[in-house]
Specification:
Elements (H helix, E strand, L loop, with lengths): L9 H16 L3 H56 L1
């Protein structure tokens, strides 16, 4: 059983519902403005964090592929040396 990383979890659903209700029920424009700016800042931070994590994951995957290529190259060289004998 795998979990879809793009599927919203229960905690995120509750959080989204909480903010939706707050926004719908709030009558004070200044409070809405402050809330919107705060949420915008959080969104920006999340995007930066996601980008950083994707970059680190890509670097890790590239390092693994490089090591695999070196191992294949090394084993190929060993096989060739055995064939030459």
């Amino acid at each position: 059983m795998s979990i879809d990383p793009l599927q919203r979890g229960l905690e995120q659903s509750f959080e989204a519902e909480k903010w939706s209700r707050f926004i719908r029920e709030c009558d004070d424009i200044e409070t809405l403005r402050e809330t919107a700016l705060s949420l915008l800042q959080q969104l920006g931070q999340m995007k930066v964090a996601s980008s950083w994590m994707a970059s680190r994951a890509s670097e890790s995957e590239n390092a693994k592929l490089k090591m695999l290529a070196e191992l294949i190259k090394q084993r190929s060289g060993e096989s060739q040396a055995e064939t030459d004998q």
